């Protein structure tokens, strides 16, 4: 967790420190990738911890899951309410744009995880070489399909990101995305149980068919009424 914390904080600072020009977009994408890596790492470790708690005290499972997800939703709502004011009123402070301040504010919350991780509040024990070797053998012998699929997903995700950064073409991105979906769903059917493969296929189709309304929000971060006199008809705070 310390490693993803350092990578995420470094990526956030990198993205914020760049000037808002098109030539810096690939570097900013790398910084935001590291920031999202930190977020996903926190989510993974947190789920591992409370899954272990669920196994030890199953009767308290509903209360624990409700507590975790209530916190996620409440703080997510608070962040949604806050970001508009930050973009609107922090623009130009210390030479940074409103969007940069919106990203910079995440440092104060994400860095607080370093202290409990350093003090081992997650009660992680150091594994010996023999224990680590036995665990790897267990994964490879009993969960080989999951291990192979995890490697395929990781390599595909990194490859897709590199292609998007290098190509800078919507057509290439679209074709790569379709090929990625075909590769991952095919790999799932090949190494997982059929019912799990069908579930992954359903999830891929449902996610691909969703019309996202989050894309136009980029206008709030990069343009104003001077660039788009007729739209998008919403304030930054909204």
UniProtKB/TrEMBL annotation:
The subcellular location is: Membrane
**How does it sit in the bilayer?**
Multi-pass membrane protein
Q: Where are the transmembrane segments?
A: 25-45, 66-87, 99-122, 143-166, 172-192, 199-221
Per UniProt, which keywords does this protein have?
A: Membrane, Transmembrane, Transmembrane helix, Transport
Q: What is its main location?
A: membrane
* A GO CC term attached to the entry: membrane
Pfam families xrefs = BT1 (PF03092)
What protein name does the entry list?
Uncharacterized protein
């Amino acid at each position: 967790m310390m490693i993803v914390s350092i990578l995420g904080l470094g990526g956030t600072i990198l993205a914020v420190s760049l000037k808002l020009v098109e030539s810096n977009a690939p570097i900013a994408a790398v910084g935001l990738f590291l920031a999202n890596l930190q977020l996903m790492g926190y989510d993974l470790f947190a789920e591992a911890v409370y899954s272990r708690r669920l196994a030890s005290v199953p009767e308290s499972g509903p209360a624990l899951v409700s507590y975790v997800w209530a916190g996620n939703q409440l703080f997510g709502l608070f962040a949604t309410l806050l970001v508009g004011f930050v973009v609107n009123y922090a623009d130009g402070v210390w030479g940074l744009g409103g969007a940069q301040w919106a990203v910079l504010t995440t440092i104060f919350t994400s860095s607080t995880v370093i202290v409990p991780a350093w003090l081992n509040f997650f009660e992680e024990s150091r594994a010996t070489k023999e224990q680590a070797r036995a665990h790897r053998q267990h994964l490879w012998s009993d969960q080989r399909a999951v291990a192979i699929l995890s490697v395929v997903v990781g390599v595909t995700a990194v490859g897709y990101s590199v292609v998007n950064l290098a190509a800078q073409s919507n057509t290439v991105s679209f074709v790569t995305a379709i090929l990625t979906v075909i590769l991952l769903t095919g790999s799932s059917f090949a190494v997982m149980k059929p019912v799990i493969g069908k579930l992954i296929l359903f999830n891929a189709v449902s996610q691909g068919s969703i019309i996202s309304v989050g894309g136009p929000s980029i206008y709030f971060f990069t343009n104003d009424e001077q660039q788009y006199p007729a739209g998008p008809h919403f304030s930054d705070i909204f």
